[in-house]
Amino acid sequence: MVSGMIPLSFGNCTELYSLDLSKNKLIGEIPEEILSLKKLSKLLPLGNSLSGKVPKSVGNCQSLVRLRLGENQLSGPIPRVIGQLPNLVFLDLYTNYFLGVLPHELGNIMVLELLDVHNNQITGEIPPELDELVNLEQLDVSQNGFTGQIPLCFGN
Q1: 3-class secondary-structure state, position 57
Q2: Which residues, including other chains, have CB under 8 Å from residue 3's CB and lie 6 or more apart?
Q3: Could you report the per-residue pLDDT of 78-94, keeping only the tens digit for each?
Q4: Contact 68, 44 (CB under 8 A)
Q5: Which domains does the chain have, with CATH numbers?
Q6: PANTHER family under this entry (predicted)?
Q7: Do residues 91 and 65 lie in contact, with contact meaning Cβ atoms separated by under 8 Å?
Q8: Could you give the 3-state DSSP secondary structure of residue 32?
Q9: What are the start-end ranges of the E strands in the chain?
């Protein structure tokens, strides 16, 4: 089991395409250096104690297919730039301290199959733009503070 902070030196691994740090005792923030890796397709630090906000530079990771940040202590709003990740198939943000609204930009990720934001502090309505996600197979928005009705689009 690994503890401490995620080493900044991972940012020097320019050929790195998968980084799985799940179920460790990692603390601190997600380093910007990791989010500069152009080939990174999987970032999986599930089940740690990472804190702070998800850096907006996550939008630079255009190769990301899996972004699994669940079971941490991440906070702040979900960055809208995640909606600019064209290859993102799995987005796990569950059991953190995310707040604010669910960005409507997530409806731009045409290949998204799994969106799990349960057990956060997200409020507002479920964006109707999620209707555009024709490949979406799993959606978990439970244990948040959503208001309003479930968009009619989900009946289709």
Answers
A1: helix
A2: 24, 25, 26, 27
A3: 999 999 999 999 999 99
A4: yes
A5: 3-11+27-146 (3.80.10.10)
A6: SOMATIC EMBRYOGENESIS RECEPTOR KINASE 1
A7: no
A8: coil
A9: 3-5, 18-20, 25-28, 42-44, 49-52, 66-68, 73-76, 90-92, 97-101, 114-116, 121-124, 138-140, 145-146
Q: Which of 77, 80, 54, 76 is nearest to 67 (CA)?
A: 54
In order of 46, 111, 155, the CA distances from 91 in angstroms are 11, 11, 22
Q: Torsion angle, CA of 6/80/146/98, rounded to 10 degrees? A: 20
**In the structure encoding, which two tokens stand for residue 118, read together?**
């349960």
User: Which amino acid type is present at position 135?
Assistant: N
Structure tokens, 80: 């809208």
Question: Can you read off the two tokens belonging to residue 122?
Answer: 């997200």
The tokens 């991972």 sit on which residue? 10
Longest alpha-carbon distance in the chain:
47
What confidence category does residue 156 fall into, taking pLDDT thresholds of 50, 70 and 90? low
pTM for the predicted model, two decimal places: 0.93
